[in-house]
Amino acid sequence: MNLKNKMKRPWNRINPNVYSLMTSCGEPHYNMNICTYVSVVNMHPKIYLISIDKSTLTYKNLTNNPVSIVLQALSIKNIKLVKLLGKKSGFTYNKQKSLVTRKLTSIWKGNNVINDCCFLIELHKLKQIHEMNDHCIFTFEIKSFKNFSHDFLSFQSLIENKIIL
Asked: Can you give the CATH number for the domain in which 120 is found?
């Protein structure tokens, strides 16, 4: 093990996929964020567990009866969107306008989604199950999905490209 890996904290020594969660509380407005705390926790029915930062518009949307929720597995082609979706607040910056102006979205099942994703999953919120200091865990059931590619954007890619850490 090299010295660089030795010095990393255990919670940063993971390599999950990077996702964006699209939430909408009604037309025409939606928000997208970046998620890395995402896990499948049940197979029948298929249930996802996602941890959401409580200071975000995504959290507000999820606690205000969202109409639409889509989990988007980002591809390496989406790496430049991480700063927009993860470093800018939906409360102070119109991510929707930026994405639409740059023609980075398309429509899937009536929802705006990011182009060039690896897969899309339409979700139904089940419960808000655990509130912590800065995050809250939600459970979601899969309504539908669509697969595209296998070129997943990973947590390690964000580190290597100096986007995080």
From this structure: 2.30.110.10
